[in-house]
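Deliverable D5.2: sample structural annotation.
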Amino acid sequence: MKKYNLLSFILLGISLVSCNDKKKGENTVFTFDISTFKEQYQPQEAIELGITNLNSKEVDSIIYYVNDKKIASKKGLDKFKFELKDQKLGYQNLKALVYYEGENSEATSRVELVSNVKPKLLNYKIVNKYPHDTLSFTEGLEFYKDTLYESTGQKGASYFRKYDYKTAKIFKQHDLDVKYFGEGITFLNDKLYQLTWQEKTGFIYNANTLKLEKTFAFTKDIEGWGMTNDGKYIYQSDGTEKIWKTNPQDQKMLDYINVYSGSSKIKSVNELEFINGKFYVNVWQKDAIAVVNPTSGSVEGIIDMSGLRKFVKNKTAEVLNGIAYNPKTKTIFVTGKNWDTLFEITVSE
């Protein structure tokens, strides 16, 4: 096992699953020629697409599709080499529409595209430790105008608040209706956006008054977990390996990336923070933070945060969750669900 996969396995607890599912579909006339397919590919590679003619039909032409996008049209049984460099990581759904003897038929298959990036082990240094409310089931953490905001979960106990992180003094708190389980928050264009877990509902508040301005429904059938933004778009996680890109104007989910560390998919992506052009990602149930390329989804760095546990005295403390970058101090603040401590840290290679 390569060193970077071992690192991912230890810190993120992921399973190194290979895809042995070279699906042929139900077609009995044509299938993809999978004799040259590999279980996994990397972005610098190409895949040769060709069709096996099971019943020796006279083929006129073949149109090839990847993820429902037309990529090539070939005469007869001509093969096609497809470069994978511009594809998002994850499964590539292959389809061939075969025209033959006045008829047409489909063949399907899929391959998995994984990351070719070797994650670096990053170090952290504790700069300061501050008190944290042990009743706070932390879901989101973010600075806005040099003030820390935190959102929490649990039905009947979900809220977000602004407070003095040095003293834990609360300036203002907004409680959610008891039917909602609060999740991640982010600030963009003087608005505060908040997710809920399984209710498929989000809220938009005035960032200065914290008054509710709009309630919106998710445009995809997903759960709400973490949230952040890059100054233009909002990004949210759904508890899988996906990070969704969302239009803040109409809350429409536009696209997504799949998070991979080497050959392994990172599931349970949770709280998000956008720091210096990268996603910093909590992985649920793991005392680790992954640094993710926002374009490709590749994990470029891993921070082992397990050493923080020795400073947390609260015996009921749950998982590490909550990442906030303070642009004024250029430091990162992290905590966990029901932790008694908020940590200010710096990160380096």
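Annotation notes: The longest strand covers residues 120-131. Helices lie at 3-12.
The annotation will be released with the project's public dataset once the embargo ends.
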